Amino acid sequence: MLFAFYVSGHGYGHATRVSALTRHLLQVDGVQVFIVSSAPKLVFADAIEMGARYRNAHIDPVIVQPLAYRVDRQKSVAALKSFLEKKDAMLETEQVWLKEINADCVLSDAAFLGCLAAKGVGIPAILVTNFTFDSVYSYLSTSLVDAPTVTSPDESHTVHHHIDAQLADVPVPPEELKPLVEQIHAGYRCADLLLRLPGYIPIPSFAVEPQLPSSEWVNPLTNRFTEHVLALLDVPPSASGRQIIPIPLLVRPPSPSIYSVAGRSKLLDSIGIPPHRHSNKILVVSFGGQVFRRPGSATPSTPKRLSRELSPVRHSLDGNHLADALGRLAKSNGALPRLTLPSPLDSPSPGSLLTSSRIATASHICIPGAPPVSKPTSPLSPTSATGGLPSFQTIPPTPIEYTPSNVNFEPAEDEFDSDYFPQLLPDDSWLAIVCGVSKEQWNAVADGGMNDDLPDSFFVAPRDVYMPDLTAVADVLLGKLGYGTVAECVDSCTPFVYVSRPLFIEEHGLRRLLEKDGVGVELPRELYEAGDWAGAIRDAWAMGCAAKEAKRGDDTGLEKKKEEGRQMADVIVKWVGAQGRS
């Protein structure tokens, strides 16, 4: 039985879960899998090592994201229009190819063109996903405006290209989107079965309601699904009228030894973390874009350690750090809810490269895939660089968990003073590992001298680090809301501090998954960019440490996932065998 697996090139989450499912399928006797994607071959290395074949092809449009948590609506629509203009020619190419290889079934995550091609050659198509792109593109008409943060000119011209991420976010007219989205939706309607992953949102091609446009699914004042949509998500799949099979999380497995002392130390040694710090709590910072490899492959040479010490924290706030910070600032300024601190550096334009291989400067840490982060070196005070306290906007791109309804705005008179500092890490028992550096940045770190401005408690992961292992050793992970990161955090019981990307509608399903099966704490992007992470990290660790410690002592998880994978593969193969060709 030969499967053609069409995989969206948007983000690594699709590639990693497809690689996981393909590995399960290839363990069934007689099964072969072709992977078709514009994502690079390397990210499917685990599956290819087991016998999957790979074909690079442009089979879906892309959502343009200038930053990990921002969406450029106009460029995304332009990319969609360009793709649809060529759709018929691409469809013909795929149909000819499917006939040539004598494919028995198309799997799709979640490229609608593959479903169309399957119908054209008379073979079944299976969607494997938690969302579809008809909903994503349709949501670009939402009235919720993702206002950019305000940047301040400093050393940005030496570090990043100037960006267009600061351009105003303008909703796309629904009448412009509708005919484009209808073509995507029609493609998904050609699928015969939906294998629905956890973290799902409504999938219109397999449901009577809610119907598109997806902008009507979300209340723009709260940036949450409406009560009606939430109720529909809990309706049993059998009520949809089309065949839906819920399946477990698809994640790449960590190495079997990673929860042992020796396995943990081996990984930390490869990152250059000295043995006396192997017992520290670990924050992993990952906003996507890292290169993946299989467990056990060689790691690059260990980088030289960086020498600068962090300044001691003079005034640590315990408890609800973010609530306290936002509450006191709001009280002094008389407004809520959106905090806008001076942004550290101009952010990179889509696809732009760093103009320097440095990942740190005297005042900023350049996080790959996300805006640079201020190093907290001065108090938030009326004499700060902005000439006063931070300003507030009234419409948040995503609601802040710490609102007037649950924050005490009556601190003691001496509680807020000029000694208050933003903090990156809660205390010196923590260290941070930054992922996703480029080859040039990695070489600069390994050679030493180029990144001596990194704080002493910050380390750079090898550029080809195996993320499931790193997520497993992490005590908390900080990143964007994407399926790959959320799934691996849930699987490894790692608390997740996330920065919202409010214009990507998938995040509503992922947030629900975290609320149900994991630990998620939202960090407003202004506090992320200002380097004030400590409170959210502390809160996430307090909520999730018990489950994390229990996970480290449980060696049955890997076998359970293998068994779930075997059962899933058997269901797929038997279902396809029962369909026949039309």
Automatic annotation (TrEMBL):
<feature type="compositionally biased region" description="Polar residues">
    <location>
        <begin position="375"/>
        <end position="392"/>
    </location>
</feature>
<protein>
    <recommendedName>
        <fullName>L-arabinokinase</fullName>
    </recommendedName>
</protein>
<feature type="region of interest" description="Disordered">
    <location>
        <begin position="372"/>
        <end position="392"/>
    </location>
</feature>
<dbReference type="InterPro" id="IPR053205">
    <property type="entry name" value="GHMP_kinase_L-arabinokinase"/>
</dbReference>
